[in-house]
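Most newcomers find our protein records easier to grasp once they have seen one. Each record describes a single protein and holds just a pair of labelled lines. A learned vocabulary of local backbone shapes supplies the integers on the structure line. Nothing more is needed to start thinking about how sequence determines fold. The record below serves as our worked example for the rest of this section.
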Amino acid sequence: MSNTAPSVERTEALLGETRHQTGGNGHTAFVPASQLEEMIQQRLREERERLEREAGLKEATHQHFRRPEERPFIKAQRPHTTVLFGGLTWKHERILQGSIAGLGYKVMPLPNADKQSFQIGKEYGNNGQCNPTYFTVGNLVKYLQSLENQGLSKQQIVDNYVYVTAGACGPCRFGMYEAEYRLALRNSGFEGFRVLLFQQGGGLDQAGLEAGLDLNIDFFIGMLNGMNFGDLLLDITDQIRPFEVKKGETDRVLRECVEYMHEVMKARQPYKFDGKFAEVIWAKTPSLANTAEFLGKFLRQLWSDHFVDGLRWCFERLNMIDVDYLRVKPICKVFCYF
């Protein structure tokens, strides 16, 4: 005859209960499964805390990342603060140096990166970064170390120098440069050194009130002009050099042109909407005066002959280089990723 009565274990499972030994007298009590699970978790927590106390460990608290607050670079610090920048060719950097100096800043381009820069970047930066990160970050640290070797203290360097570079958001290395600069500077003993960014999201005006570095329309027009002039001189001399009759003459003339354009850029003063009529407009409707000054800067950029005369001098100087275009030269193209 078949046994149709449910077993004790099946009945307990249906009722959501579990047999639990409560003492040494052999008595057995039924404890709900939910309560039993809570008792197990409580025992595990107590045992974990006991083991951590014995090992001298404490549970780490996790905090969200916050961008480190940085000392501001204010307008009153301009006379004694040098703005550093780099990462371009020496031609572009020299012309841009004149452009930024014309706005009233002390400015200095970094030397070209080398193998030592790469090694310093590897030493003080994160692991697994790409080569450009190590070269650029290490080059900044190397220059600051050279200043220290010249007799400046770390605090003097931190107080009297800032570094300006382009920035962006995103997962590529370009969006991580700022964090890499700060990490390497902190690891190398220059914590607190100021790194300033200009980026696409800020538009043509990224300067705060009384900011030390006004990232405004004058700054960006100067950057645009400097990059264009550097590209022009680089492109023309690269076409002349293979056919020069006297070896090295093209490079010598190129240096003369770069120095001349440096002075041309430095002599360029920002446009100001001034005069008696302008004073009335500034007093009554500052927003209209600001718009007029903004438009004036663009119109002068389009119609002024200041830069045209400088480029014409460079053209005449380059045109004096003796060349032999009948000389057979191979056409070489180098494709690389840096």
